[in-house]
Amino acid sequence: MKISKITPQKRNKNRCSVYIDGQYSFGVTKELIHKYDLTEDSEITEEEIQNLLLHDEREKIKSRAYRLLSFRERSAAEMRARLLKAGYDSSLVDDVIEDLVASDTLNDERFAALFVKDYTNLKPKGNRFIVHELTKKGIARQTIEKVLAIRDERKLMQQFMQRKLKNLDARDFRDRQKIARRLLQRGFTPHIVYDVLNQQK
């Protein structure tokens, strides 16, 4: 088969349409045109076309991943789920995820550390909440334990009580129940909640 024409696409100047034997065959990026050294009047096999299209599809997936990362960090599992939901082939998605992890573009430990930082400084939540949410996002238990190891949940909870619950008296039974309910709703570890409250009776 012979490439008869290569022309830039009207809607996307970064992509080209490739014609074989006078008829449109496929579209790929200009980068791949140069990488595979495609030129008019050159020969191309069906196998080469399939390899080229697979490479092009991987690049599309990677571009989508970078767009998602432009909004915020994501875990590898979270990224995989979003790409599969977009309709991409699972084996190609796995290839892209592997590349992004290898290049440190995706890093579950960094993602988890930033997640913990947000729920410590911006909107304080307890360790139980963080474990639950990070587990849902596919973060390994070992990684979660590592990023929580340097976090003083007891101190964070006491600071939250001083800022947000200062109008409640922990020595009063009803107020103590209200405080406990608020803290548990924010995902603080139950035994720490009751330990701190019992010390204030």
Describe the structure.
60% of the residues lie in helices and 9% in strands. By secondary structure, it is mainly α. It has 4 domains: 1-44, Winged helix-like DNA-binding domain superfamily/Winged helix DNA-binding domain (Arc Repressor Mutant, subunit A, Orthogonal Bundle); 56-105, Arc Repressor Mutant, subunit A (Orthogonal Bundle), CATH 1.10.10; 107-151, Winged helix-like DNA-binding domain superfamily/Winged helix DNA-binding domain (Arc Repressor Mutant, subunit A, Orthogonal Bundle); 153-201. It has a 3-stranded antiparallel beta sheet. The longest helix is centred in the first third of the chain and has 24 residues, at 46-69. Modulates RecA activity. Keywords: Cytoplasm. Belongs to the RecX family.
Please estimate the helix content.
55-70%
Number of helices: 10
Which architecture name of the largest domain does CATH use?
Answer: Orthogonal Bundle
Strand content: 5-15%
- Sheet with most strands: 3 strands, antiparallel
State the total count of DSSP E strands: 3
Number of domains: 4
Oligomer: single chain
CATH class of the largest domain: Mainly Alpha
Please mark out the parts with pLDDT under 50 across 5 or more consecutive residues, or reply none.
none
Structural class: mainly alpha
Apparent shape: rod-shaped
In round numbers, the mean pLDDT is: 93
Q: H/E order of the elements? A: EEEHHHHHHHHHH
Distance between the termini: 86 Å
In the CATH hierarchy, the third-tier topology of the largest domain is known as Arc Repressor Mutant, subunit A
Domain RecX first three-helical: 62-100
Domain RecX second three-helical: 107-148
Domain RecX third three-helical: 155-197
InterPro entries: RecX_HTH_1st, RecX_HTH_2nd, RecX_HTH_3rd, Regulatory_RecX, WH-like_DNA-bd_sf
